[in-house]
Predict the structure.
Amino acid sequence: MKRIHPTAIIDKQAEIAETVTIGPYCIIGPKVFIEQETMLGSHVVIHSHTKIGKRCNIYSFASIGAPSQDLKYKGEETWVEIGHDNVIREYVTINRGTAGGHGITSIGNQNYLMAYAHIAHDCKIGNHVIMANVATLGGHVEIEDYAIIGGIVAIHQFVKIGAYAIIGGGSSTVKDIPPYVMASGVRAKLYGLNIVGLKRQGFSKEVINALKKAYKILVYKPITLREAIKQVKEDSIFSLPEVVHFVEFIEHSQRGIPRKWEKK
């Protein structure tokens, strides 16, 4: 049965599953849907237009579903959608989407959002993503599966972060960060593959060596990016799906990537 503290305030339009726990002084607004076994600590605010999946653990003073901080937002009906098994720590803020974006800020499954992290309007977070304390996403940011965003990292609007990438603490990111790499710096630069992370996730030696080769061509080689992409596609390593994803991410990047050789 539901365990709802008597000091919690829940709008009549909210739909709360039977096994949800809601702590003291929480406020749940209209059009909020919370699935089974999710737990809300004290003072959590779920503003409105928010869907939260099963077995999520949301800590004190988190704010989810507040209107976008985009000045173009005029009160349109937009949403936050959160999947299953997520941990959302103290003071995390997650804003709704905008009509000018996707209309949805979405978060997948099994993510860990540490204290004071901010996810702005229309962001799309995959699965198994870690955002450390005070990591901040501008609007329309996309983060693929298993990426790690360090503490006090600022990611510019519309930037995309690839799968299994790691961004060092205190960085600011204005360009796309490809999958499988390490990035760091005031204007984040690339520092090779995320070898430790790839090994921990069970990537084979063959795949890691192929990604190393592709990385050297795409990031370091003093040729145009178009030429570098063509060279990797013509290599036998392009038969591996991880290399294909690496190349296609870069090929379709809208903001560009940090290259050692900046010739386009």
Q: What stands out?
A: The chain has four helices and 28 strands. The longest helix spans residues 205-220. Residues 201-251 form one domain.
